[in-house]
């Protein structure tokens, strides 16, 4: 597997990798703060749990949006040149996957707006 | 056998605010799901049977984009917040709630009402009595394996896990008799682990509470007196408590007011002298695997005396 | 390395094919001889995918029937309230075994088995890259599975539910061996599933037809790739879970005992981290089958290929964020539950994408209503309904009502029967002509479908209502007068209809299934993919060049040209079994893989592995140990015959293409397999560290418990230093073992021996240090977790030591040099992994308590 291919596959899966990192971080943070009973801590007037979830979700959203932009640009570049079918396929997959990941990432952060932290 | 009428253990017959919320969610999703299901089926049949030129519009990537991406994402973006709001609004703790502690044991329920505002605490079993209209908060745990506490008419279920104390809050809003059941497989007699839930007017509830907190009734006839003696000499008090007597065992259900309960055997039989006698003599036959041995060696007369004594403990 | 940069295109008329006609007379003869299956009693030593695949599918189907019979007994018991047909103790074994056998012995093996048979055919490979590994996986599963099943006849079957929740499955509440049968029996069948998954990953990535680049891969290959990746990530959790629970049962290490700092919920996390992806692990290959069958039946290419690939990958990822939706009622914070609610919602989208892609494909073509089509339509109907109830239970508040009731029983059977059994039956009717001289009967098939379709709906639809009106799951009986009687009776009638359908299917198989090697019924559906090329035990005569997703439709005359020997590798260049390895993305020819042939070793190794675990269950420790050593011996004997080295110079496979018959390094197939194995091991270790941290969160105030003597940093860092030093020695040995001149310097065994000593010393020092502090593994979950990490490391050090000694032995036998070094590479990779894991373990054990301020 050449470095270029590795990078292409990574970019293709990147949306879901970001989702997985977001998921792990927000679930881990919620569980840990609730188990250690430090959820009352406040950051800038917001409870620490919603604050962390919001921050992580925002970061994940921005990263994935960046990946999507990159994939779109890459796709346009490949189509104008005479790139191989595999390259085009991988870039199309990257567009689809990062676009769908954005929906998953937003849903993942939604509970912070509605639910109490540790009840 | 228990002559319960259907609907006493049903999520489709809500008797409280929380279960009403859950019921509405159920209806909304069932109706929505049915419509989607019909839509998909119609499209599928259309794709198979419609003439090629008429179905051509369906055979493109557009179908996937609208049907498989846009539609579910839109629908689910509406459903998810609704579900989360129902989640926030149900099982929400309330500061003035009536506290009740329930411990799941193989295969019965230990119930304790802690002292509250001068009213003393007391223990009972296999029966939960609630005042209508007042929030209740259960503290749930298990003594041996995992059980799950579920009263479908009043709220969702919550697991009872050894080493953890879980909470369940709801408000009953209709008086009546309901049935709760163990919903997590807990061993041999998981199928026979239920309990009665009785929702009373506040005044009736207070009266019930006062009665339960008092000590056991003394036997009124020599026959019942004989039953109490047999209860003592038979060693029943090693496992069962009858407050006000020397019986103070803690392994099994508190029997101080066993005669006042609707059912015996953890929701298995209506409570009367006959079923009590049958239970004492054939425990291991009726509910094999429970901790209580069968007392088949008691003579018929003795059995009736013990059963009569227990039945008199109103 | 001679790798063509661009694909040539071949005209029908001509001379431009890689190999000219006529072919040398004895070429086909030699190919046939190389792939000659063993005859007589030794046919069980066959390892070829055509043999193993069919045995595997057949065995899985046998377990489907057996577990189905168990469910009929249960349905008979539940037909009426307060029934006495079976006792509670038998019933509890029945439902435990039904779930366990269906999930572990039917569903996962069935889809894996089907791919052992189909994948090489579909990709025009001669065989899977590790045929002996598939044979080993099959026999281990066959022997272990059958013995496991027979426990039901002796009342020894597990009876704590297929989910085996402690404390019910702990020693205190399940003192008999029943639970151990589950833990050891299933635990080791998981290992066989992982072996299969590694094989599938390498098979999909490396052994495809020339030119079958990622965008032209059959969807089934994509599905199997995602499936296998999910197995190697998901199954480690259950393997660790069973290890911990068995450690608790056997040695009283309290991982799950609340009084001593354990937590029953830890098991649930581990179980469902495997258990939920498991559902998709079963479902994804089935969707892959559907995506192959639908285009063939509608006679049109699949609409939305990229969308389906997206859906498969999305499902693969998202399904790992769902596990707590089986734990919605465990009292976790609502916020935590809601994350899983959101992910469970998200995973509905990929399923929707696939359903609409199939509908679009059907609409764009013309669906022939054959038996496979009927099963596909039935699948879409049943699965859509199951998917919609799936969205319902994804909403945690609704699940609080539905959880552990018959609503869930209905939902999961709709999803699994709809999502897996119907596609599998479609696949039977669709692919039998590849394996048999006759197709199955269309007429009987319609009846099979009708009975099963009506039966499934009659059985399971009423259960939605039964559940909502209060009937819990896993009850051996229910009281009169709850309003459940009629609904249960209807369900029972439906169950027997399904059984009638399955019985009719068996009849059809007996009447029409005639397995064959090279005389199959042919392309009866006019399908477009490569498994319909004429084939034999050696697969296709030549490895074709494909230029589209449906080469048989788009490349006229392909079947004849392939069979005539016009494409690549028309014979055997080494004289033995071989297959062409292509590059993972663009499928350019890379090298010729020398495929091992029949042998007793995998069979015997599997039988003794099974015996090792089964005897351990009944506590026959000495016999078990003997079998374990024998199993290890056979594995080593089997490996000894592999890694043949470049037994001839690079060979011409046609079209002026010369490829080597041996490569090493990252291009080698066993390198890929080793990387996959390292992912498995890394996941087990990750789950172990997760368990450690989880138990810390349960006991934040006593981590370690007061009175524990923490060892200083010196022993820990010394052990770490020894580990790293051993890795350096291996790295130096690797440097010495370079060059094209086939050197085998004597420094290599010496360095390896040094590395063995250092690694073993480091591990021993670690154990000894903790033993010195009098830390007890059974007093508190802290000790159990620490010794868990140490014991796991000892297991890996032990394996590395054996591998090191084996590699030294290869050197001594003259089977290791600077070119022929695949064995060394594998040992090296595993060594680095062991060192990495050991160092991480030391950091956790010595560092974490200090970090959180304990002791």
Automatic annotation (TrEMBL), chain A:
Keywords: Membrane, Transmembrane, Transmembrane helix
Annotated TM spans: 44-72, 84-107
Protein name as annotated: Uncharacterized protein
Native organism: Microvirga subterranea
Automatic annotation (TrEMBL), chain B:
Membrane topology: Multi-pass membrane protein
Catalytic activity: 4 Fe(II)-[cytochrome c] + O2 + 8 H(+)(in) = 4 Fe(III)-[cytochrome c] + 2 H2O + 4 H(+)(out)
Cytochrome c domain location: 222-314
Keyword annotations: Copper, Electron transport, Heme, Iron, Membrane, Metal-binding, Respiratory chain, Transmembrane, Transmembrane helix, Transport
GO biological process, one term: ATP synthesis coupled electron transport
Gene Ontology CC annotations of this record: membrane
Domain Cytochrome oxidase subunit II copper A binding: 95-211
Main location: membrane
MF term (GO), any: copper ion binding
Transmembrane portions of the chain: 27-51, 63-85
Compartments where found: Membrane
UniProt superkingdom: Bacteria
Pfam families documented for this protein: COX2, Cytochrom_C
Functional note: Subunits I and II form the functional core of the enzyme complex. Electrons originating in cytochrome c are transferred via heme a and Cu(A) to the binuclear center formed by heme a3 and Cu(B).
Family that this chain belongs to: Belongs to the cytochrome c oxidase subunit 2 family.
Protein name: Cytochrome aa3 subunit 2
Record organism: Microvirga subterranea
From TrEMBL, chain C:
Entry's transmembrane regions: 55-74, 94-119, 139-161, 181-202, 222-245, 279-298, 305-325, 337-362, 374-396, 408-432, 444-469, 489-507, 598-616, 622-640, 671-693, 713-734, 746-765, 785-808, 829-848
Keyword Membrane: yes
Predominant location: membrane
Protein keywords: Cell membrane, Copper, Electron transport, Heme, Iron, Membrane, Metal-binding, Respiratory chain, Transmembrane, Transmembrane helix, Transport
GO biological process: aerobic respiration; electron transport coupled proton transport; respiratory electron transport chain
Statement: the UniProt record of this protein carries the keyword Metal-binding: yes
Compartments reported by the entry: Cell membrane
Membrane topology: Multi-pass membrane protein
Pfam family, one: COX1
Family (UniProt): Belongs to the heme-copper respiratory oxidase family.
Name the UniProt record assigns to this protein: Cytochrome c oxidase subunit I+III
UniProt lineage: Bacteria, Pseudomonadati, Pseudomonadota, Alphaproteobacteria, Hyphomicrobiales
